[in-house]
Amino acid sequence: MYKNELDKHIQNGSLSNSFILFGESAFLIDRYIGILTDIKDASVAKFYHDEYDFASAKAHLSQASLFGDRNVLIIKSEKKVPKKELDILIEQCEKNSSNIFVYAYYGDDQKAYAKPPAKTKTMCVRFFHPNQGEAVFTISQVAREKNVNIDNYTINHLLTIQNWDIALACNEIEKLKVYDRAITTKDIDSLVFGLSQTSIENFIKKILNKKDFKEDLNTILEHGEDEIRVLTAIISYLTQLYMFHIYIRVNGAPNAIEILGYPAPKFVVDEKAAMSIKIKPLTYYKLHELLLDSELKMKSSHVNKSAILLSTLIRLQQLL
Description:
The structure is a single chain. 55% of the residues lie in helices and 9% in strands. The protein has helices at 3-12, 26-36, 54-62, 83-94, 132-145, 152-161, 166-175, 185-191, 200-208, 214-222, 227-251, 256-260, 266-278, 281-298, 305-319, and strands at 18-23, 43-48, 71-77, 100-105, 123-127. It is α/β, with parallel strands linked by helices.
């Protein structure tokens, strides 16, 4: 199953008591471990990576919990737990409905746990990297949990600064608790380290409007930002503009909720809509091809990433 199906089971109270979590998003795996094992006064045993010991894990699920509390077993590993051992742990867990067993697999074999073990109620859940709307929604959930007053537009700004790294963005929410009021984009820029030193969005706008961007670029790099992160931020912004472009061509007018997955201020929607239409579909293709090729070059060893980035951005402006 996928995340949305698991969410329905959580809402309906129809969860199993054994889970195998896997997929591309380590952040979501970790988040749902917390959700599924958030049980007051539970007796919790955690085994991280090389700490795993079958005998100890089995003993934890087998023992009678002290004071009638529930036994929770969490195994987090990039290596597969041997199938025979995993089957025994699941069987031991299902003997007592009060037990909870979560096996979080962080390896690359996504097919290994697509189906639950036979004759068990185990829920196997695959987590993909969240899309833009899902990322904003998840951050908003975390903000509510931490009593941080922040709207979706400002969350989008936070994610942009963190190059859409949802884990980094969630970590920054904790810093924002210092404000006992609604959080603004200026608060984000002043507190959050990242591309906020020079607004990444203003930097990208300068590039797309064929203005001189070199001073902004130097400031960003001098503050320790990685060239690849700068490049991927531009790719993300252009992808968003392309989504606006296609939606407007099909429907005649932009709709932020359908394009972005959340409402945005009218001036933001109007600005992005106007900018998106200026670029032709073929040019979008050429721009993405240029940026992705440059990203691949930067990931090669012994290259001057700053020089590649600068030449790429100059070439990008020539294509516009």
